[in-house]
Amino acid sequence: MKILLLGKNGQVGRELQRTLLPLGQVVALGRSELNFDSTADISRVLRSHAPDLIVNAAAYTAVDRAESEVEAAFRVNAEAVRVIADYARERDACLVHYSTDYVFDGRKDAPYVEQDTANPQSVYGRSKREGEIAIEESGCNFLVFRTSWVFSVHGINFIKTILRLAAERTSLGVVDDQFGAPTSAELISDVTALAIAAYYRGGLAAGTYHLAASGRTSWYGLACHILEYARRLDLPLMLSPEGLKAITTADYPLPAKRPANSLLNTNALTSRVGLSLPDWRLHVDRTLDQISGEGKKQ
């Protein structure tokens, strides 16, 4: 099987380069090889490689900047996705794509299921939802995975931001009224490969699925855990867990509105593929171990 991976340099894309290898012949492209702002370039590249499976890990993810760069967000997250989905339908290829908890408004009291009504509250969320709709309307074979609070050793994410600030400050306020399950790019990519294998065996139907770690925390709770574990690793930080202050969303206004509830019910995926998704702490700790190891090498 010929697999085309788009967005190879992102957090998830980096991990997918590893997990997709057992499934077929993988060609991985990043921004230098593919201009996502050009639908003509996307079409050219797709036809040039003629993949059986397209895994799209590319996205516009600057959530706050999207509020002022509306066209750019929709160009990458919706228009480009429509081109890819149309190609997949024409060539009878399968499209794997990633979406987000931001397609929901966050007002539900329980974890969101796939059938819940999408009601994005930000430009980023609306652009990602438009990408979902484009895939659904194309008629192609697809697997869309909605995930949340993504992190990894690479790229910009909450864990690395907390560690950076903790090296500079002795106190920090962190939002404590937004809840979710921090999910590692490693876990997302591992489950993606298992889901693709199940799809081709006939054990998983095409459609949209939620993919996130187990458990629940707030950004403040996550920050506390990061600093507590970092202390056990003897990382050289100025900020201790005691220096963290729980604040509200209203205390820390940002351009883009965040869902208060980002929890995703993953039963539809886990029951069909036969998975047990680990608690969010497992991969947070693993990532901190890796970051600590890299720091000690330098």
Structure description:
This protein is α/β, with parallel strands linked by helices and 298 residues long. It has helices at 11-19, 39-49, 70-91, 123-138, 158-166, 185-201, 219-232, 267-273, 280-297; strands at 2-6, 25-29, 53-56, 94-100, 141-147, 150-151, 172-175, 179-180, 183-184, 207-210, 217-218, 244-247. Strand 1, helix 1 and strand 2 (25-29) form a beta-alpha-beta unit. The longest helix has 22 residues, at 70-91.
Give the SSE map.
Blueprint: E1 2-6, H1 11-19, E2 25-29, H2 39-49, E3 53-56, H3 70-91, E4 94-100, H4 123-138, E5 141-147, E6 150-151, H5 158-166, E7 172-175, E8 179-180, E9 183-184, H6 185-201, E10 207-210, E11 217-218, H7 219-232, E12 244-247, H8 267-273, H9 280-297
Parallel strand pairs: 1-2, 1-3, 3-4, 4-5, 5-10, 6-9, 7-12
Antiparallel strand pairs: 8-11
As laid out across the biggest beta sheet, the strand order is: 2-1-3-4-5-10
**CA radius of gyration:** 19 Å
Q: What structural class do helix, strand and pairing data support?
A: alpha/beta
User: How would you state the average pLDDT, rounded?
Assistant: 96
Give the SSE string: EHEHEHEHEEHEEEHEEHEHH
Kindly report how far apart the N and C termini lie. Answer: 40 Å
Principal-axis shape equals globular
Q: For the report, how would you describe the main beta sheet?
A: 6 strands, parallel
Q: Ranges with pLDDT <50 over ≥5 residues?
A: none
Percent helix: 40-55%
Residue share in β-strands: 15-25%
Helical region count?
A: 9
Count of β-strands? 12
